[in-house]
Amino acid sequence: MHCPFCRHPDSRVIDSRTSDDGLSIRRRRQCPECGGRFTTTETASLNVIKRSGVMEPFSRDKVISGVRKACQGRPVTEGDLAVLAQKVEEAVRQTGVSQLDANEIGLAILGPLRDLDEVAYLRFASVYQAFDSLEDFESAISDLRADHVKAPQAE
After folding, report:
1. Domain ATP-cone, which positions (predicted)?
2. What is the DSSP letter of 7?
3. Which pairs with CB-CB distance under 8 Å and at least 24 residues apart come from 144-152?
4. Domain total for the chain?
5. What is the pTM of this model?
6. Residue 153 — φ and ψ, nearest 5°?
7. Pairing with 1, which of 13, 22, 68, 107 sits 20 to 30 Å away (CA)?
8. Beta bridge partners of residue 38, listed in sequence order
């Protein structure tokens, strides 16, 4: 790590802490040359490979904007969307890979969105899974109904 003051190519770590979100590490460093102290933040990179082959960093904001469209007119708050995006990021990071297909992000969105709002889930799934007919909707609705029947028995 280069010193931001004198550009010395090395520094010594004085203190390391996990940040508030738990996804990054904050390190206090000191330059052995000039004695200047500075802070760095380290995060694990997570890249998404789009259908076109272009690679870009994972973005919670993109998850939120994609899901927001499905949630229009539904009782879903911005806070709910932020929590959903956090769950999606945690799920994809738990896979342990640093690069994943955009398709895998969509699959990771479906579960938390289904728990959040079933109508928004159907809207998102209909676009994401390219529903072609009423049968596709009927099948998805049947799956939701089957889960409602199972849920009370699980308690």
Report:
1. 46-136
2. -
3. 144/114, 144/118
4. 2
5. 0.69
6. -70, -25
7. 22
8. 29
Residues 137 and 99 in one domain: yes
Q: Which residue has the tokens 């690069």?
A: 99
User: 137-145: long-range contacts at Cβ-Cβ below 8 A with a sequence spacing of 24 or more?
Assistant: 144/114, 144/118
Distance (Å, whole) CA 25 – CA 87: 20
Residue 131 identity: F
Asked whether the beta carbons of 121 and 110 are under 8 A apart, the reply is: yes
Please name which of 108, 112, 107, 118 lies closest in space to residue 75, comparing C-alpha atoms.
118
Structural domain containing residue 16: 12-43
Residue 91 has which token pair? Answer: 């799920």
2 within some domain: no
Cα gap 56→69, rounded to integer Å: 22
The residue whose two tokens read 């959040």 is 116
Both tokens of residue 109? 């969105």
- Span 63-87, pLDDT tens digits: 999 999 999 999 999 999 999 999 9
Give yes or no for a contact between 58 and 48, defined as CB atoms under 8 angstroms apart.
yes
Q: Of 134, 135, 124, which is closest to residue 74 (Cα–Cα)?
A: 124
pLDDT digits (tens, 9 = 90+) for 101-148: 998 999 899 999 999 999 999 999 998 888 898 999 999 999 888 887
